Amino acid sequence: MSDTNENPPTNCLCGGNGPKLTMLVEMLLPSGEAGSHFRQAHLELLKGLRAVLDQRIEAMSQANRPGTRLNVD
Fold it and tell me: Buried (b) or exposed (e) across 46-60, using 16+ Cβ within 10 A?
């Protein structure tokens, strides 16, 4: 093994460039008040998607429930 500063090969998709990619993304994202606004908007979007999924799950669960049998005289 040589004493170079090269990163050892990894099995991850980023090829060991994760920290560099993270720095790039952080540079591109707005900071301060604008960044806070976008993070809050992202959170609201995810909450909306969760609500849609919850409604869909409930609707599908209701459709699969068997009906109640009643005895009629």
Answer: eeeeeeeeeeeeeee
**Using alpha carbons only, what angle is made at residue 12 by residues 11 and 13, rounded to the nearest 5 degrees?**
120
Query: Letter for the amino acid at 1?
Result: M
Element containing residue 61 per DSSP (H, E): helix 32-63
Domain boundaries, the chain: 33-63
pLDDT tens readout for residues 64-73: 677 777 788 7
Contact between 44 and 36 under an 8 Å Cβ cutoff? The reply is no
